[in-house]
UniProtKB/TrEMBL annotation:
This is Membrane protein. Pfam families: YtpI (PF14007). Keywords: Membrane, Transmembrane, Transmembrane helix. The lineage of its organism: Bacteria, Bacillati, Bacillota, Bacilli, Bacillales. It comes from Halobacillus faecis. The chain crosses the membrane at residues 6-26, 38-55, 61-78. InterPro entries: YtpI (IPR025618). The keyword Membrane applies.
Length: 100
């Protein structure tokens, strides 16, 4: 199954990308938005890693470790998704408002 390592790699690269973009940004609202996006990709990284862990080893221990990773990944991705939706709306309001 080559798909899970590819998804893990893509998720990790996007997580690092958004973390670097946070450092490059000066606007606090933009930083919060980018941080929420990075949380989303961190959650997907942990989720896919948990699935890959079980598919690769297929033991009881890897099942338990995989279930913990899947649960944490879903929780992290869900929190990142909610924050991303919130900050996306705030970011759109900030962009469309007239600058003083």
């Amino acid at each position: 199954m080559i798909i899970f390592p590819i998804l893990i790699l893509i998720s990790f690269v996007l997580y690092i990308y958004y973390k670097v973009m946070i450092v490059r940004s000066n606007d606090p609202l933009t930083q919060e938005y980018l941080n929420s996006k990075s949380k989303l990709f961190l959650g997907s990284f942990i989720f896919f890693f948990g699935i890959n862990q079980y598919v690769f080893y297929q033991t009881k221990l890897s099942l338990f470790v995989g279930l913990v990773f899947i649960t944490l990944g879903i929780f992290q991705a869900q929190q990142g998704w909610k924050a991303s939706k919130h900050y996306r709306a705030e970011f759109q309001k900030h962009r469309t408002s007239p600058q003083s």
